[in-house]
């Protein structure tokens, strides 16, 4: 098994869930399918969905919720077969 890093395609504010009352998109051990939403990045009041391009198992978020991120920063890690 190998690990894949999901990186930020844009700078902005990182979110692990769609609203303060919602569950996080993924928890460690959750299955990940292609096009699953992993997180959001807010840029100028626009929320951009960051989706998986891989199938595997969610390992971890590498950024805290509501933290500023930069282009190329690792957001999450997925383990693939």
Q: What can you see in these coordinates?
A:
It contains no helices and eight strands. The protein is mainly beta and 81 residues long. A hairpin with a 2-residue loop joins β4 and β5. It has a single domain (2-80), classed as RNA polymerase II/Efflux pump adaptor protein, barrel-sandwich hybrid domain (OB fold (Dihydrolipoamide Acetyltransferase, E2P)), CATH 2.40.50.100. A four-stranded antiparallel sheet has the order 1-8-6-3, with no helix packed on it. The protein has a four-stranded antiparallel sheet with strand order 5-4-2-7, with no helix packed on it. It is globular and about 35 Å long.
- Tell me the β content: over 45%
What value does the Rg take, in angstroms? 12 Å
**Could you say what the CATH topology is called?**
OB fold (Dihydrolipoamide Acetyltransferase, E2P)
Instruction: Report how far the terminal alpha carbons are from each other.
Output: 5 Å
Name of the level-1 CATH class = Mainly Beta
Structural class: mainly beta
Unreliable spans are none
Name the strands of the widest sheet in spatial order: 1-8-6-3
Helix content: under 10%
What is the count of distinct domains?
1
Individual helix count: 0
Question: What tags apply to this protein structure?
Answer:
Single_hybrid_motif, four-stranded antiparallel beta sheet, globular, fatty acid biosynthesis, 81 residues, single chain, 8 strands, lipid metabolism, OB fold (Dihydrolipoamide Acetyltransferase, E2P), mainly beta
């Amino acid at each position: 098994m190998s690990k894949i890093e999901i990186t930020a395609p844009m700078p902005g504010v990182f979110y692990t869930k769609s609203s303060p009352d919602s569950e996080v998109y993924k928890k460690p051990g959750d299955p990940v399918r292609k096009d699953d939403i992993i997180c959001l990045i807010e840029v100028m009041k626009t929320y951009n969905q960051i989706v998986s391009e891989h199938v595997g198992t969610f390992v971890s978020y590498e950024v805290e919720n509501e933290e500023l991120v930069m282009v190329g920063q690792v957001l999450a890690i997925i383990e693939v077969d």
